[in-house]
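Quick start: load a record and inspect it. Here is Acyltransferase:
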Amino acid sequence: MKIEFVPLNTPLARRLQTVAVLQWVISFILIGPVCTGISVMLIVYNYWYIYIPYLIWLYFDWQTPEQGGRRSNWVKSWTVWRHFKDYFPLHLIKTQDLNPRQNYIFGFHPHGIFATGAFGNFCLNYSDFKKQFPDFTPYLHSLVCLFKLPICREYLMSLGLVPVSKKSISHVVSKDGGGNISIIVLGGARESLDAHPGKYTLCMHDRKGFVKLALIHGASLVPVFSFGENELFKQINNPEGSWLRFAQETLKKSTGFALPLCYARGIFQYNFGLVPYRKPIYTVVGRPIPVRRTPHPTQEQTDQLHQTYMEELKKLFDEHKGKYGIPEHKTLVFK
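Running the structure step on this input writes:
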């Protein structure tokens, strides 16, 4: 295989974009182990004057992630995030105005490998979110276990992330006066194993918890589809029933983490590496589904709203796929 190197005359702006995206990928993969390692080292080398005050403060601050977190406009405005957004680039498209006196749950699809569109469009001050939805505050939900790790939790909260727990979601969508948006990547890590270019398989049939919470709190549901999400990486073929898929799903069940064997390009060449391909991402926010507050929803009510949500999601995909280069014969597959 002939290696295709990055041209030497590549503009500085594009090089900075590549570095920005690389640091994000590395952070995504290593933030948990690195933060855990730092915490252990502070204890092993007896830096008590650092870890004792922090542990005391952590004790009193333990519930903060599930109470809306603690975002930092300074961190969300780092220049590195502007280069990150421009690399792909990222776009946020609104199809309908939302009522600022209501709270909403956005269901984000597909997960892709890293849910890049969700992070870039709903966590960073360089996105078009405030332009499109000026009266709202977004809360992107992520793995609960990450918010139990010292240091890691502080960084994630500073970017506006909160746990994907019942308590956390309820806190966001029960705000009096509205104006909050809870963004949930519904397919989760399991869906990342189906994140192949040109494939649109969503894990939805057993994802009904968000519907029940929407009913309990009267939060309107909004399907969101991120076109281009699955094109950022290639993944080693892992069809259902293969030994690789079996191993990946076993790991997912035992640890909660999926391990898609993905690859894209490198820093100085285009043939292999963990830097995602430079593909545009168009995150389209669909029409809201009105939800009447039902403190004690029945299974029938939950199932009915879940079916309505999937139908609206399919309509959103079919209405917009032609604009973003997806052939007309392509359709969503729910599993």
